[in-house]
């Protein structure tokens, strides 16, 4: 049904965590949701970190970086399970993309005037 576009680049790395093929494919599937909403994404980097010294509810940390035309988007999630942290990360990144697209539409529909007080502009030739 959903074909993965090879032009979508998703980089998955693990810190103190061995990445299994199951985790990699799970992250790839979940990140495809972001590419469906926004076509201008250049690259998505996901860092999964496991810290055994933390309390169990904060053991796994997932960091997401979306490289997009314009300012990049970053998000971090802490959870007790690796798969749960990826799910929550995708939700958070999706919300950031929605909020960003809403801001650009709002700016486009409600332009504001710029006032220059006492500034002399050079004349066009």
Question: What keyword list fits this structure?
Answer:
single chain; 125 residues; alpha+beta; Double Stranded RNA Binding Domain; 4-stranded mixed sheet; 36% helix; 26% strand; elongated; disordered N terminus
Structural class: alpha+beta
What count of helical segments does DSSP give?
2
C-alpha Rg, in Å? 20 Å
* Mean pLDDT over the residues: 83
**Shape type:** elongated
Terminal-residue CA separation: 59 Å
The name of the CATH superfamily reads: Ribosome hibernation promotion factor-like
The domain count comes to 1
Main sheet summary? 4 strands, mixed
Question: Would you mind describing this structure in some detail?
Answer:
The chain is α+β, with helices and mostly antiparallel strands and 125 residues long. It has a single domain, classed as Ribosome hibernation promotion factor-like (Double Stranded RNA Binding Domain), CATH 3.30.160.100. 36% of the residues lie in helices and 26% in strands. The protein is built from two helices and four strands. Helix 1 (21-37) packs parallel to helix 2 (82-109). The longest helix is centred in the last third of the chain and has 28 residues, at 82-109.
């Amino acid at each position: 049904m959903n074909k993965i576009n090879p032009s979508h680049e998703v980089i998955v790395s693990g810190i103190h965590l061995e990445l299994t093929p199951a985790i990699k494919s799970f992250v790839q599937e979940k990140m495809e949701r972001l590419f469906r909403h926004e076509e201008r994404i250049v690259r998505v980097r996901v860092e999964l970190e496991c810290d055994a010294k933390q309390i169990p509810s904060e053991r796994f940390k997932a960091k997401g970086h979306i490289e997009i035309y314009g300012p990049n988007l970053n998000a971090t999630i802490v959870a007790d399970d690796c798969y749960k942290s990826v799910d929550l990360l995708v939700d958070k990144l999706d919300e950031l993309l929605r909020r960003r697209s809403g801001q650009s539409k709002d700016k486009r529909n409600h332009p504001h005037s710029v006032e220059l007080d006492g500034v002399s502009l050079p004349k066009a030739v």
